[in-house]
Amino acid sequence: xxxxxxxxxxxxxxxxxxxxKGNQEAIIQSLMDGHDTFVLMPTGGGKSLCYQLPALLxxxxxxxxxxxxxxxxxxxxxxxNFSEDDSIAHFMNSSLTRAQIDKVKDDITEGxxxxxxxxxxxxxxxxxxxxxxxxxxxxxxxxEAHCISEWGHxxxxxxxxxxxxxxxxxxxxxxxxxxxxxxxxQHDIQKNLGMNTGAHVFKSSFxxxxxxYEVRPKTKNTDHDIIRFIKQHQGKSGIIYCLSRKKVEELxxxxxxxxxxxxxxHAGMDANTRSENQDAFLLEKVDVIVATIAFGMGIDKPDVRxxxxxxxxxxxxGYYQETGRAGRDGGEGYCLTFYAYRDLQKMEKFMQGKPxxxxxxxxxxxxxxxxxxxxxxxxxxxxxxxxxxxYESENCGNCxxxxxxxxxxxxxxxxxxxxxxxxxVKEKFKADYIIDVMLGKMTADVKSYHHDELDCFGCAETxxxxxxxxxxxxxxxxxxxxxxxxxxxTLHLTPEGKKFMKSPKSFKVVEDSEFSDEEEITPMxxxxxxxxxxxxxxxxxxxxxxxxxHLNLPPYIIFQDPSLEAMATTYPITLEELxxxxxxxxxxxxxxxxxxxxxxxDYVDExxxxxxxxxxxxxxxxxxxRKISIIKAIDRKIDLNEVAVSNGLDFxxxxxxxxxxxxxxxxxxxxxxxxxxxxxxxxEEIFDHFRQCQTGSLENAYKELCPDYTEEEIRLVRxxxxxxxxx
Length: 727
Prior knowledge:
The protein is an alpha/beta fold. It contains 34 helices and 17 strands. Strand 5, helix 8 (162-169) and strand 6 (174-178) form a beta-alpha-beta unit.
């Protein structure tokens, strides 16, 4: 290629593009001029090109440090497609044989390779260091640079060693790139890589205007909600993220059973299968890939139309990066997340045993994630603020909170109380502590600091914690309060906040969304999150109430809310179809179903409804086999702890399975186990609660019966009650 070409001409020559995107040209020029360069650019902004093009234009081989084998393979394949010679790009990692590594080294030595992708672990190997000392290096590119920071969502200790190794191999310009970094993480990256004051910094906006953000409550019907969502987006590419490998496998199988082309992808699979599954997704042989969040995908597929988080990620950085894989071509991208606070509590438990500082960082990142999910403020505005970018509009028009506006309430007194409390405790505490003082909670910390003696102690005792959390979050977005990330989230007053205290005025906030931890929560209460027919749902609710009154039973014993919602979504008109509804099963269908399917059939006929037969969710046989195993074990009166272990479940998961069995109408007897745990009077007290309550809510039961009884004891007696009274 002629050396006189401009960068734009070189771009067209090598990649076929006529123009650069955003800051790409300036970034490339900075690197080619020999400057250390820091690039903060959202997913889909074209980060890779910022080192690919200069690597082709500069003398020597560029060393690209990348954390994912999958990402390396994808990028090497892409570069080879732009060249006539496969030697143009190579990767060096643990997946290669000795012969393959020798071939890579030969191509580099002979000057054929312009880009060498290495994992940080490979870069630290002594023989690789010695080899790299012998070659001409054009520059070093550190991809996914947020891995350097302990505050990043995917911290990797190996990344901390990159700078010393670069110094040992031979100093050349460094370009660090990341799609997601808070101001704190940006500082960490530059400091650790030794980027001096002469480094050029390029930051692009984090605003992905084409992405729609939605958070729904996680319920027992979440699997079915996902299937319905995908069927409504038939033929479109999507990624589903789960926290556990087990859930990845289960969900991928459930999708296939329901005629959705899907494959799993996680670190526990053998390399060949994982690679084949990724290629099948890229080549559109399957529509959906189900993957673990921890492992990541590292793919460059521009037309991913939806990203679903089955579990909320551990940090907003992880969330932003993963949702950013949707709509990279500028087309539509739907980002749907299912949230339950209990999932974050589980993640917090997993941190136990780690260094205290790491636990504190992890807890704060989880708190930010919970705040984002529960907030009713514009999601785009909240995300951008987190990354240090101000979004002027209060309504982006492209997230669930902005599409379903909620009424604002006056909170001038509450924000004033919060600001005064922050000042009174000398700006040394986090939001939770500030709220404890405002509510007048006599916690051990409050007592030890004598903050119960402050005038502000109990200044908002008539408010609830959720509302005060919303007030503080609005105060941060309004610029009245700043959060010191380096001190684990302590709150400080800003000049604007002090000015507001001197001259207060109206301050309106939107209350946070309430996400119940009760697994039987019905999405009907969430409005837009439900696909059910509201008129039919109301009819079925009325029928359930009449049936319950006739039989002198609480309504939830007949059918629970999620079951009615599913009926009002898929319109079952035979007992056989009714058995496929979650929480029904053969027993309940026969006992209570006749009048329900008649009402549904009459409604369908009257309204001339075309039933969505393709939306009927089929269950996976493996789950049925496990439940059969549990039923047989209970029939033999085997200790439930042993039943859990033999089925690979923890006790909580076992109780969920037994609840599902009982809810479907199957009568089982676990009295032999309960009698060893509770005496008859204790059982009767819990039994009476469920006999008198109208919803069967575990959350309400916990509030009334704890701490006299444990949550497990309450669930066990509830199972007994449902089986004996309802089945």
